[in-house]
Design brief:
The chain is of the alpha+beta class. 28% of the residues lie in helices and 33% in strands. The longest helix is centred in the C-terminal third of the chain and has 28 residues.
Length: 165
C-alpha cells in the first residue's frame, strides 16, 4: 500500500521485521530511520562516528513492497528525528536498487538491474498462493496463521502512521 504526499511517496513496510511507515525522498542524500522508532521497538542498533559525533545507526533490513515482490535491503541507516514517517529512503537507496516507480507503486526491477544490485540488496519474487490438498490441514492452518500475522502487522503499521500525523 502506498500513496503520494506532495512529491514524496509514503508506504507501509517492515524495518527489522517491525511494521513501519516509509517516506521515499529523492531530495535527501542519505536514508535514515527515526530515533524514536529505534527505541520504541527496541530495534538492534550500533554506535557510529558521524562527523566526529557519536550517533546511533541500524542496518535494518528494510523490506519494501513492489507490485509482485519486494526489495530487501541491508545498509546503514543513520538515526535522526523524523516527522511523518519511521524510515526515509534517500538517494543512496534509490541509486543502490535503481528503483522504478509508476506514480503509485514500485515496479519489478528490470533483469539488468537485478544483475547490478549492490551487496546487501536483493529483490524477491512473491510466488502465488500455495496449493493445499485436503490432507494437509496443518499447512492450511499455518497459512491462515501467517495471513493473520500479516493483517496484524498491517493494522499495527496503520496505527503507527495515525500516531505520526
Amino acid at each position: 500500500m502506498s500513496f503520494c504526499v506532495g512529491r514524496r511517496l509514503l508506504c507501509l513496510l517492515c524495518f527489522a521485521d517491525v511494521p513501519a511507515v516509509i517516506r521515499v525522498n529523492g531530495a535527501s542524500l542519505d536514508s535514515t530511520v527515526s530515533l524514536s522508532f529505534l527505541h520504541n521497538f527496541n530495534v538492534p542498533r550500533s554506535i557510529c562516528n558521524h562527523d566526529g559525533v557519536a550517533a546511533e545507526s541500524s542496518s535494518g533490513p528494510v523490506r519494501v513492497p513492489t507490485v509482485d515482490g519486494w526489495y530487501n535491503s541491508r545498509q546503514i541507516f543513520c538515526s535522526v528525528y523524523l516527522k511523518g514517517c519511521n524510515v526515509e529512503l534517500g538517494c543512496d537507496w534509490l541509486v543502490f536498487v535503481n528503483v522504478r516507480f509508476d506514480g503509485s507503486r514500485f515496479l519489478r526491477p528490470l533483469e539488468t538491474d537485478l544483475a547490478r544490485l549492490c551487496a546487501g540488496h536483493t529483490w524477491n519474487f512473491e510466488t502465488g498462493a500455495t496449493q493445499v490438498g485436503s490432507s494437509s490441514s496443518s499447512v492450511t492452518k499455518a497459512g491462515s496463521q501467517r495471513k493473520d500475522r500479516v493483517v496484524d502487522k498491517f493494522l499495527m503499521a496503520m496505527k503507527i502512521y495515525e500516531d505520526l500525523i
